[in-house]
Design a protein that fits this description.
Layout lengths: L1 H36 L16 H133 L6 H14 L1
């Protein structure tokens, strides 16, 4: 009985010692974990800002930067260069086309101005020619009208002179006949009409 009691006491003591050891180990782990996750002052640190993580972060940063650089160099940069080259070629082509169109426009404007000057000279020459022709035609027409008027005037003067001479001859005849009739009526004598005509002519000439 005493031996069983002693054995039970020893077993209980061993169990208590193991529990104490496990409790101490758990407390040590908790203390170790707390030492890694806490910073002085009792606040938790952001993991990327921990100094122990800097080497791995720098390593992956270098790898990422190198990968991005290779992607940019082999894929994106050639495309950008091609786009810039195409845009430069397009700009150069547009400038060349603009210069060509400007030269064509200048040539068209110069040709238009030359044709306009030629048309003005032709119009001036034509107007001068028409003016000269009109002046010549007017002078010829005036000369023709003046000649016609002179001919008609001469004809009228000749006709007037004929009528005048006829009237004068008729006046002499009338005066002679009247004088003969008056003499015969006043004095019952016979007179010669020729003598009376001569007397009438002499009287008219004296007047």
């Amino acid at each position: 009985m005493e031996s069983d009691a002693a054995s039970g006491a020893e077993g209980h003591g061993a169990t208590t010692e193991m529990d104490a050891t496990q409790a101490g180990a758990g407390h040590g782990d908790a203390a170790h974990t707390t030492g890694h996750t806490e910073v002085p002052g009792g606040k938790n640190a952001f993991p990327p800002f921990e100094p122990a993580a800097f080497p791995s972060q720098l390593f992956w940063l270098a790898i990422t930067f190198g990968a991005l650089f290779l992607i940019m160099k082999r894929s994106i940069a050639p495309r950008i260069g091609t786009i810039l080259e195409e845009r430069r070629d397009r700009i150069v082509g547009d400038l060349a086309e603009a210069d060509r169109l400007r030269e064509e426009t200048d040539a068209v404007i110069a040709a238009y101005e030359a044709e306009l000057k030629a048309a003005r000279r032709h119009a001036t020459s034509l107007a001068e020619e028409r003016r000269t022709t009109a002046a010549a035609e007017l002078a010829a027409k005036r000369a023709e009208v003046e000649a016609d008027l002179a001919a008609k005037l001469s004809e009228a003067e000749a006709r007037i002179e004929t009528i005048k001479q006829r009237a004068l001859s008729e006046v002499n005849t009338i005066a002679t006949d009247t004088a003969v009739a008056v003499i015969e009526r006043v004095a019952p004598i016979s007179v010669d009409p020729a003598e009376v005509a001569s007397a009438v002519s002499a009287v008219r000439s004296g007047n």
